[in-house]
Amino acid sequence: MKVRVLSGVQPTGNLHIGNYLGALKNWVKIQYDYESIFCIVDLHAITVYQNPQELRSNIHQLAALFLACGIDPKHSSIIAQSSVPGHAELAWMFTCVTPLGWLERMTQFKAKSEAQETIGDGLLQYPVLMAADILLYQAKIVPVGDDQRQHLELTRDIAQRFNSQYGETFVLPETKLPLVGARVMGLDDPTTKMSKSATGAGHAVALLDPPAVIRKKIMRATTDSQPGVNFESKGAGVENLLNIHQAFTEWTDDQMRAHFEGMRYGDLKKTVAEAVVDGLMPIQQRYQEITADPSIITAVLKEGALRVIPIAQATVELTKQRMGLYSLV
Ligand code: TYM
Hints:
Helix content: 40-55%
CATH class of the largest domain: Alpha Beta
Low-confidence stretches: none
Radius of gyration: 21 Å
Bound molecules: ligand 1
Mean pLDDT: 96
Number of domains: 2
């Protein structure tokens, strides 16, 4: 049996090059080495209020983007999390083995809850549901960006705690970060992570931004007061632009240095912008083709769910058995 991989993206807002370089590009690369499941985590999205029509359309848009980036639905299962009941079922069982203190310490919970007037219980339980996503399929490898590292550690802790209370049940998953692009920073402020929820117009390049918009955003990116690229002392903005370039082109460190050392920032930005435009163009073209026929997406989401539901059900049954819960099978 092939080792299983699972990862997920929230269907909230526009996917940006941080999501692509931190996660999706890596998924496409490794998908055939594993049995792969890629999840549109709509149950995570509703931890903050979502307009129902927008959420439904974001789910379809995200599935189309997965395909456009190169996920092969014949091999990999693309699922909407809420279409597989096991995610929520297992999450409840994990809620009951997770100490509250573990959840209150999560940095993403702290950051998100500071921004809300009232905090829904779901926001606190968010990482428990994420542990359920992964452990439901006994996934060994979880390809994500750097910001998910703490959630993955918690997933391992939950699995370990369950195993020690109820007997060996869950595989402990490993985090797989990309070599370059694990943490893409905001173009307007390279000290903060590029994020879907940031509001600044020049903050993020969206995967579906037209070439002119991509160029404009990158030409306006924050750099520093040095005249050109100096590999010995790079400011955060220049480092971010170089990382973006390297992650798109997959150039070696030597190639990067040979090409960019001493280059003036205006030329650096032009070169980076062209690499991003070239990298996104085929994705945008495929996206247009795929969305021309909406039945493609509904079929892919159905096929994916039907393929994984038996795996999910088997884990839920095993977990219930271990805990002494009741089952009709
Ligand atoms: P989400 O939707 O915030 O992000 C999706 C993926 O994109 C990565 N990412 C980045 N990588 C590099 N630079 C950035 N600036 C950047 N911003 C985001 C994220 O690390 C992620 O890999 N909690 C998850 C979704 C989730 C999940 C899971 C992931 C739910 N269940 C199970 C893995 C396994 C999240 O909010 O991702």
